[in-house]
Specification:
This protein is mainly alpha-helical. It folds into two domains: about 60 residues, no CATH class; about 90 residues. The chain contains seven helices and no strands. It is flat and about 50 Å long. The two termini are about 30 Å apart.
Length: about 150
Amino acid sequence: MTWLALALAVFFNVLANVSFKLAMSHGRSQAESAIWTALSNPWLWVGGVSCVLLLASYLYALRGVGLGTAYAVVTSLALVFVSASSAVLFQEQFTLVKAIGVLSVVVGIFLIGKFAMAALVAVVALCDVAGPFWSSRGWGSPWLLARTRNPW
């Protein structure tokens, strides 16, 4: 149950960050008050509620998982999925340098604990986002290559 709580913490972390970006992308002009913006922007509310749920699930997970492990998993996987979400939802650049950085985070998650499934999910997400980057350079999609090759 604690690993489910950690997975929920990652989900709510990503949801909060994406919601806050959406809130600020569609916000009102600076002349209007911050209070009005907060009260009238549903994405800001979604982000705030996600933060509360993130905290609740993280605190629950800390009962059964070490602090170093829990912190590394939540923050690192959130970084991977926020990077993927920003590329997909907001058309932010996903450069080779960013891809290498995200891949390094995934390797770090794998090395910190026994997170083979979490690392695999993160790699799949990275490959789906980075596929157009690699394809545009004639390198082919890494996800397509991974699916067509026999890993055994």
